[in-house]
């Protein structure tokens, strides 16, 4: 069974640009969440999607957005990139929105903003 | 003060040792407790998932939750060099199980 797949694995962008990251959850998983991981702040919740709806968002500026498609695949977008956006962006999925299951994470997309 | 506190380590042990990793938390509303293992340049891997208090065992791993003390532990028996990684505790509330609150992670090094 394939795991959570994130593309691309690595990205280098220039300040001010925008970027789109992609996540394919485990087959059958409908809940997808995104996290940002940095050495200073650790793992922080970005947003959660279920059935194509963003149900919850963490404490991040509006430059961070995302969406989920009917096949549960998800994308997140960061506009007007800042140096501080350099981080490992992790996508995680689970079968449904209940607390009965833990999240399975992908390997992440490492974004470097220069 | 952070909601979840975890000693960053590093923790260095000889192969075969029993490892004890711990987290404390301040929010009594947390009901779901998890341990993840993260290797360098990889995403976190779910090791243990428990609901409320009690113990859970899976192979060489045992997770314990003490809600009265707001304290969770992960024990690794017969530790192996391949267990060398960063271990992250995570927890969430029942009414917001989508939002995991992570500890900062403990680096573990198992020496051959």
SSE sequence of chain B, one letter per element: EEEEEEEEEEE
Q: Radius of gyration of chain B from the CA trace?
A: 13 Å
Proportion of residues in helical segments of chain A? under 10%
What percent of residues of chain B adopt helix (DSSP H or I)? under 10%
- How far is the N terminus from the C terminus of chain B? 37 Å
Secondary-structure-based class of chain A equals mainly beta
SS strand fraction of chain B: over 45%
Ranges of chain B where pLDDT stays below 50 over 5 or more residues in a row are none
Poorly predicted regions of chain A: none
Overall residue-averaged pLDDT value of chain A? 94
Keywords:
heterodimer; A: 114 residues; mainly beta; 11 strands; B: 112 residues; 6-stranded mixed β-sheet; 5-stranded antiparallel β-sheet; globular
Describe this structure in words.
The complex is a heterodimer of chains A (114) and B (112). By secondary structure, chain A is mainly β. Chain A has strands at 5-7, 10-13, 19-24, 31-38, 42-50, 53-57, 64-68, 74-78, 87-94, 104-105, 109-113. In chain A, the strands form two sheets. In chain A, strands 2, 4, 5, 6, 9, 10 and 11 form a seven-stranded mixed sheet that branches. Chain A has a four-stranded antiparallel sheet with strand order 1-3-8-7, with no helix packed on it. The radius of gyration of chain A is 13 Å and the shape is globular. By secondary structure, chain B is mainly β. The mean pLDDT of chain B is 94. Classes of the chains: A mainly beta (114), B mainly beta (112).
